Amino acid sequence: MKIKDIRGMQNDALASTRDQLVLELNIERNKTASTGVQSKIVKVREIRRTIARINTMLKERGAKN
Questions:
Q1: What domains sit in the chain, N to C, each tagged with a CATH number?
Q2: pTM, whole model, 2 decimals?
């Protein structure tokens, strides 16, 4: 997700998107842990970066988490 898209979203939408991404990240990490094969390293990296972008935007706006 691009920062341009993130800036256009409201705080509650950002929070719900972040929660969905955290769940998706946990699922990907569990898949890696259970199989021992890291097949989607790029996907995990992008999810983590998107979560960080959302957290940064929420902090800049002064939103309560």
A1: 3-60 (1.10.287)
A2: 0.86
